[in-house]
Every structure is written in C-alpha cells, then in structure tokens.
Design brief:
heterodimer; A: 7-stranded mixed β-sheet; 7-stranded mixed β-sheet; B: 7-stranded antiparallel β-sheet
C-alpha cells in the first residue's frame, strides 16, 4: 500500500503536545486527597526475614498506614508466569515468580519488604527509617556457573536447585560435521548487565470511586490491557469496572511490560483499602533495583567452517542470568538462541542453554531482548574465522548470507512466539553492498587506514550484519470512527512510549479515508477506549496494530462508499475519497463530506434496513501467522586513543530493512535511538555487582550513560523487502538500532588497534576495561606505545 | 571491601594500646557517638549518628566484638553495623609493632561487606574518604600521645562517657571505618 501520506516523512502529531509540556505523564496526575506511598527495600541480596516491626512507623505523624507481607492477607500471592515456555521437546522449566512484598526471604537488593502510606512522599520516606526488619543474611548467588553447583546456596526452597530452565534446540548434526571440518574455532564470550535507564521512571496512581465501583489506574506500563484484566481478577472486580490508562510514557524499552511489578498490584489495593487516591513514583535510585534489567550471559561457542569460510555448523552452550525470579519465561534465552543464526545459512546447529536464578534484580527484555548476545557471538566467531582463514570480513559474511531465493527460510527450531523460526523474506546482500559502498569500506582499508596509521592514529572500521525477529502475535485491534464533525477517531490498545503511534497509525488510516493524518485523532493505551490487545513489545506495534488499523480503516471506507453512493446516487466504484469528502470521480463538485455521511449513518428518526450497523465505525483485529524478520547492517569508523582507551566515532551508518516504511523520519528516529542505546550497552553502561550481590554503581554518577557528545550523527539508509506475512508488508524496527552495536564495537576496536592486537570476547566494554585489555595484551609494554 | 593501611604513633607500644582503649580519646576521635555500652567481655553495642556538611544524620546501630587479643600486640574486631542507609559487616585485624622506644607502627586491615545505599551510591567515595577519615582520627589520637588535648572525657558531649569502666578496646578503628562508610552518603 502506498498513498499520499503512507510512506512520507509526515511530522509527528504528538510533538506539539510533548514539546509544549501539554502531554500527560503519570506523575502529572494530581487528585484531591491523594496519599503517597514509599517502599522499604532490602539492603541484602539474600537474607531470611526473621521479623518486621512496623509499630514505630505507624505512630509517626503524617503516616496513614504501614504494611508488610503479612498485612496483605489473601491478596499476597506470587505473580503470574507472563510467558509460558514454548513447546520444545525435553524442555525443563522451573517457575518462581515475584511476590508483592517479601515474606520469608529476600532474594535481591531492592526487593520490597514493607510500604508506608503517608500524606506526602517526604513523610512516607521518613517513616521508612522507623521500620525495623530483623534479617539473617544468607550467602548471595552471583556467579552463573557456581550457582548450579551443589555447594551453592539455594534461592528458592521449593525448587531443587538454582536451575530455572534447561533447553536444547538442534538442527542437523553438528558433531558429525565438526569432526570432519577443516577449521573449528572455539571461544568463551561474556555479556554483562545494563539498565534500561528510561528518562521517566515507573509510576502508578490509583483512584477508587466507591460510589460507581470503578477503579482507575494510571500506570507507566507498556501493556495496559493485560494489567487491567489482571487487576480486575486480583481485586475481584468486573473488567469493565477497571480502567487502566498508560498515558504518555518517557521511554519503555521493555522493562515496563513486566507483569506484575509489586507496585502495580499494591497501589490499586491501597486505593481501595483507604478509599482515596494513591500515588507512587519510582525514584532513580529505586529504578536501579526495582526495575528489571538485562543481558547477563556466558557462551561457550564453536563454529566449524570450510577452508573457504563457509559455515558448516555452530555449537553453542550458554548460561542465562534470570535474576531472582523468572516471570518472563524463556523469551530472552530463546531470542539469543534464535538470533545467533543471523542472516546466515547455518546447516547444522546445536544450542543448549541453562537459565540460572541469581540473587540479583529480575531480568526481563530490554530493547534487543537477548538478541544482542546472539549477534555478538556469531559476528565475533565470523570475525575470528576471517582472521584465521585470511578472508576479508565482509567477504566471509557475503559467502554465508541467505540469498533472496532462500525465503521463506526454515531454521528448524522454535522461536519465542512458539512458532517455528521461519524467516519470511530478506535481501541481505543488497543491504551489505549498500553499507560497504556508503561507508567506503574498500577505500578506507586500502588508503585511509594506512595513511592514518602513518600519522600514528589508530582508526578502524567495523561492519556487521544482524536479523531481528519482530512483529509477533498474538494479535492487536483497532477501531476507526468518523464523527459528524468529520473528525476521524482511531483507538487501539498498544500504548505509546514515544514511538510515534499518533502519527504512523494516523497515516495508515488517513490515506484510506481521504483525510490528512492530522485529522485523525489517535487514542492509545486507555482501556476505556479500547480493551482488546496485548501491548507494546517485540517491535510489533506497527506490524500488528498497524495492520489492524488498516483493516478497520478499510471497513469504514466500505461503509463510507456505500452511504455516499446512496447519497450521491452513483455507484460506489465511481466515488473517490479526498480532502474529507466523498466525491464523484468524474465530477468532483458532486460531493458530500465525511461528517454529513456520518450523520446519515446514524439517523435519529425513521427506519433503517434490518441488519444495519450504526455510524461510520468499524473494529478490526490482526494476528499474524508468525513474526516477521527484519534485518540490517551497521558500519562504523572509529578512532581509538590507546593512551586513554577512549574512542571517537567518526562515522556511524545503518542500512536497515524493516519492510514497507510507513514514515521514514520515525523509522530513522527509532534506529538512531536504538544506536544510542547500543553505544551505551557497548562502551559505557554496565551494572557492577559484587560477590555479595550488592550493586556498586546505582546512580548516574557511577553508571555511565552515553551523552549527546558520545552519540554521533547516524546515517540511516533503507532496503525495503516487504513482509509477506501482513497486508502492509511491514516489519518491526523498534529494537534494531541497539542489537548489533556490541559486535560492531568489538570489530572496529580490533581493527583500529591493528591485526592480532587483542581479541574482544566480552561486552560491555568501557574506557577502563579497554585499558585493562590493552594492558593484558601487552600493548603498553613497548616504549613506543607509552608516549 | 578491603581496607589496609599503616600508621605510626609517636609513643611506646603500651601507651598506644592504652590510648586506643581510653573512652575519652575515642570520643574525641569519633564525634557522633550517641551511645556505646559494654554488654559482655570485649563485646560492645552502640549507636552512632553522623552528620557532616550537607549529609544529615545517618544513624546506625553498631556491635563490635574483640577477639584474639594479644596485649599489647594485636587483636581482631568483628563488626556489625546496620542503619537505614545500609549495613556493614566483617572483620578488622590490628597489629602494633614497636619501632623504637617512642615509635609504634600500627598496621590494620579490614574486610567488610558493605550493602544498601552506602554500597550503591557511595562506592566511589569509600576508598578515598575512608583513608582520609582514618588518618584524621588516628592523628587526633597521636596528638593525645604527644600532649594531652584540651577538655577530655567530661567535654565529650555525652559521647563515650556511658562507656562502662573497662578499657573500651580499640573500637575506635572500627568506628572510624563505620563512620567513613556512612559518611559517604
């Protein structure tokens, strides 16, 4: 589909509200008589709770209520298993989900133990100091491999060990090919944790109206509808009596779809119990413990190749850190397992992983969601193979890329959405060619790098490929309504965290109805406006909800044409929709406005044909058969200063294929934002835990985020290979920018420092860590490098 | 966290040992001690409230047990401190060595687990602030060795005057470490 607005860089409808401070965020909600909640969180990573004394806190001035686990009665129960494991043979999974307030034990620093309700947050926090918790510290579980030994302390008493899951997926026979393979490379790779660090932390406000029996909750969630359904169930209310609003949100990135966070179940409960509005806003320090995190994995990986660099097979055994609980099932390690295969032909694959409970904050998807780790392992193996086989880095990738005629390509393993891992479409070599040409790969290697080296500068180039499974089901919906004013209203269930939903969805609808996108009023993330759907995750908003918007718009278009044909006394085929009017193609002056048609479609008197639906309105749902595979290539020129181990990014290029593009400007924004995230994950951001499970850098003083000066101008180009799995041909793009950046940094740094200078087998790096690696590699041993 | 350092006192070893056990001197070295009681042999419990500059009163309960005492050479302190800002627990070993008739070398090393807000946001300061605080505390004791300070026990703002009779043990060092840890907030 393409039209006047679909495919154009239309200015964002939401920006005026956002830029002038008119957009509502959860913390903007102020209600009469509202009370404030603060949480007492564990200082220990692992400890037994012997007693909790709330009496002093309760008697403090300004305090309205103080609660520990025992005060919650039957409301205290472990959260749901949000994502049940996919149907994989021999799969072993052990469930341990988080609880609202820790009762017998705490299992990570920051786990909530008690909460105070007070007139102000100030008073609530002061009262926290008066709660006395008697704790018996237990040994922490930090190291992934040690956690699975018999000597390790155990986190969950109802389980046999700290093993949360064990999964093997296999294709072909790796052992057989590896035996005969001319070349086998084996390495161990480490990926460590980072925070999602959204600009807006989490927050919940709840308001209980006893007279109408209605509960309204403002929540920074990416999944307002499942939260509503879950809350209704927990609180014993009809779903229709619970309204969850996810207003504007300052960045989601995945952790805001955890379900349920303790605060999400407790704040509404408090509002009902006290009969007055309750508010909790997460502060930045809480966010480092109380919001989920990601990426801790260790891989023992092996690749078998021919002398010509053709992949014969890959063998990977890895450990995945799920933190203290595993409510998100196996989404992350399965994403790692599947995404490792990348855009390549891998005839034999053996992948085995163990998910491990540790006494660290809970792990759930963060932008990229396990894909970074898989891409890092595969791209690193190819870089090492290229070096050992003396094949150019781009060439070894080119020799292994899937060709356009290989699609659909079945990898014969199961993806996170429980469907077989089948790539729908792609044009990987075209993207690689485009990147090679635009970054000037050959010229850089043949001329620029040598002349820079002659000047004593360490410049390098990186170029990596990746794929991203996006747009998974199950489904989303949308309702399109034309009102008598001529205004078009579009409601959908997927909340927005800055992605441009108000514009992209409007573009899709506008073209079908002959209006401009700014005439389409979009409502998202309010269960009172639309209450079917699952949420914003897995780069699926545009794919799944976008297609639902399209289906609904087509249905309304059909109604418009039918009413217009009757009104204008012509055939529907003779009518075009443009400029808010239905007009006869051959004589545009014969026309009727969409608003007048809406009035005709909803008569106040008279009779209608039996079976007539009122109004110009339609609701539609879209559920893809399976996810669609986006792809891309990132290329980067960097300069490394070995004396300081600091980097300067000279150029950063992304060639991306997200199928049909709705709005190139928005796609570019998504990609650039992802790259910024990726740069942080590669060279700045790392959560450091000590052996006692204490997080040592829980503030922005010590946890480095890339700043504006660290993020370069990113050049973005597109290849468009439409997906056959949805009518609009869209693939997702929300996470793409972040996924391959670690692999890219590793390759470019190695290249800058010269052949065989060091081998980077871990992410994230930092200036400090790079300095250590250079020292270990003996880089500073020769006097010439010490200048 | 591991901390280790040395300090040279200008006095004989027995005198230094004694000084390290004098409640009045401990109080001077450690403003903010609200209560310190001997609850058993070589077993102390107390409460401290520290407030420096913009950092207001971080209050914490502390218990210190002295073990492996070899008068006047060495001892071990087992420490447990808990407050709203976090906790610390671990051991510190102290050794006094004669370097001359008027010179005593004190070497100490402490291995402490530090948790909570202190560990989370104070990490970058613990080491450097720790060293400088320890030095200040020890220097004030050293000054006492070389010439008594003005206004001793009675003037210690109710500090360690509640300390029961017996030598207080060298809790000073541990308390200094604790102060350091909690100050970084």
């Amino acid at each position: 589909m393409s039209g006047r607005h679909f495919g154009a860089s239309v200015r964002r409808n939401e920006d005026e509200r956002l830029l002038t401070g008119q957009a509502l965020f959860v913390d903007d909600v102020h209600l009469e008589g509202m009370l404030h909640v603060a949480f007492l969180r564990s200082d220990y990573a692992h400890a037994r709770i012997k007693s909790v004394d709330l009496s002093t806190a309760r008697s403090r001035d300004g305090v309205v209520g103080v609660y520990a686990a025992g005060d919650l009665g039957d409301y205290w129960q472990p959260g749901p298993l949000l994502v049940p494991p996919p149907p994989i043979e021999r799969l072993e999974f052990h469930e341990a989900t988080q609880v609202p307030l820790a009762r017998d034990k705490v299992r990570h620093v920051g786990e909530p133990i008690a909460m105070v309700v007070a007139r102000s947050r100030y008073e609530a926090e002061d009262a926290l100091a008066l709660i006395h918790v008697d704790m018996e510290p237990l040994e922490a579980v930090v190291d992934l491999e040690a956690a699975l030994t018999d000597e390790s302390p155990q986190l969950h008493e109802h389980l046999e060990s700290n093993l949360a899951a064990h999964v093997i997926q296999e294709k072909g026979d790796y052992a057989a090919v590896a035996d005969k393979a001319p070349h086998v490379i084996k390495r161990r790779f480490h990926f460590d944790r980072g925070a999602s660090a959204p600009m807006e932390n989490r927050g919940v406000v709840a308001d209980w109206d006893a007279k109408s029996g209605e509960l309204t909750v403002w929540d920074t969630t990416q999944a307002p509808i499942p939260i509503r359904n879950g809350l209704a169930c927990l609180l014993g209310l009809p779903e229709a009596q619970v309204r969850v609003i996810a207003p504007f949100i300052g960045g989601g990135f995945g952790p805001k779809i955890m379900m349920f966070y303790p605060e999400e179940v407790l704040i509404p409960w408090l509002a009902m119990k006290h009969g007055c509005p309750m508010k909790w806003i997460e502060d930045r320090q809480e966010s480092f413990f109380a919001t989920t995190q990601e990426r801790g994995q260790i891989h023992d990986a092996e690749i078998a190749l021919t002398e010509g660099g053709i992949i014969l097979g890959v063998h990977d055994v890895f450990w995945h850190d799920t933190g203290a609980y595993d409510p998100y099932g196996l989404t992350l390690p399965i994403n790692s397992q599947c995404t490792l295969l990348g855009p390549y032909q891998v005839p034999n694959y053996y992948s085995e992983f163990r998910v491990v409970f540790t006494s660290k904050p809970i792990v759930t998807p963060v932008r990229g969601a396990g894909r970074q780790q898989g891409v890092f392992v595969m791209e690193r193996l190819l870089d090492i193979a290229a070096r050992e086989l003396d094949i150019d880095r781009v060439e070894i990738r080119r020799r292994n890329l899937l060709a356009p005629e290989d699609f659909p390509h079945d990898h014969e393993i199961i993806y996170q959405d429980s469907a077989p891992l089948v790539y729908d479409s792609g044009n990987y070599e075209a993207a690689l060619d485009k990147a090679v040409e635009k970054i000037g790969y050959q010229k850089f290697l043949e001329e620029e790098q040598a002349s820079a080296r002659a000047e004593g500068r360490h410049v390098g180039i990186g170029i990596v490929s990746y794929i991203e499974g996006t747009g998974i089901g199950p489904y989303e919906g949308a309702r399109v309504t034309i009102e008598p004013s001529g205004k078009v209203c579009l409601a959908t269930g997927v909340g927005t965290q800055g992605q441009g939903h108000f514009t992209s969805f409007a573009q899709i609808v506008a073209d079908e109805l002959g209006v401009t996108p700014d005439c389409v009023h979009v409502v998202t993330g309010d269960t009172a406006k639309f209450n079917w759907g699952t949420g914003t995750f897995a780069s699926r908003g545009a794919v799944v909800a976008g297609n639902a918007c399209h289906e609904a718009a087509l249905a309304v278009r059909a109604k418009v044409l039918a009413h217009a044909a009757a009104a204008l006394e012509v055939e529907a085929d003779d009518i075009e929709l443009a400029e808010g009017m239905a007009r006869v193609k051959s004589r545009p002056e014969t026309c009727i406005s969409l608003g007048d048609l809406a009035v005709r479609a909803n008569p106040l008197r008279g009779a209608v044909e039996p079976g007539t639906e009122p109004g110009l309105e339609a609701t539609a749902y879209f559920g893809p058969e399976r996810g669609t595979t986006a792809s891309g290539v990132h290329a980067m020129l960097i300069e490394v200063d070995p004396a300081t181990a600091m980097l300067k990014i000279l150029r950063f290029l992304v060639v991306h294929d997200c199928g049909t593009v709705i709005n190139p400007m928005i796609v570019e924004g998504q990609v650039v934002g992802g790259v910024a995230h990726g740069i942080g994950n590669s060279f700045y951001e790392q959560l450091h835990f000590d052996k006692a499970g204490q997080l040592l850098n829980a503030s922005f003083m010590d946890y480095l985020l890339p700043t504006a000066t660290d993020v370069p101008n990113v050049e973005v180009d597109h290849v468009e290979t439409p997906s056959p799995y949805n009518p609009l041909g869209i693939k997702g793009v929300g996470e793409a920018g972040a996924i391959p950046v670690g692999a890219l940094f590793a390759q470019a740094i190695e290249d800058a420092l010269g052949p065989a200078s060091l081998e980077i087998l871990e992410m994230p790096l930092s200036p400090n860590r790079l300095f250590e690696l250079l020292s270990e590699a003996g880089h500073y041993d020769s006097p010439s490098e010490q200048e | 966290m591991h901390m280790a350092s040395e300090f040279v006192f200008a006095g004989p070893r027995e005198k230094v040992w004694e000084m390290l056990h004098d409640p009045a001197i401990l109080a001077k070295a450690l403003p903010g001690t609200k209560r310190l009681e001997l609850v058993g042999e070589d077993d102390y419990e107390g409460e401290m409230q520290i407030s420096v500059g913009p950092v207001t009163a971080a209050s914490f309960a502390v218990s210190v047990k002295l073990t492996n005492k070899v008068v006047p050479e060495s001892f071990t302190m087992v420490v447990d401190g808990r407050g709203n800002a976090g906790f610390t627990a671990g051991e510190a070993h102290v050794k006094l060595t004669e370097q001359g008739p008027e010179e005593t070398l004190m070497s100490y090393s402490a291995d402490l687990d530090i948790g909570g807000r202190v560990a989370a946001v104070g990490q970058r300061l613990i080491d450097s602030v720790g060293k400088s605080m320890a030095k200040q505390g020890l220097e004030s004791i050293n000054r006492e060795l070389t010439g008594p300070m003005e206004g001793t026990a009675a003037g210690s703002a109710g500090g360690l005057s509640t300390l029961l009779g017996k030598p207080a043990g060298a809790v000073v060092l541990v308390l200094i470490i604790l102060v350091i840890v909690f100050l970084v907030l």
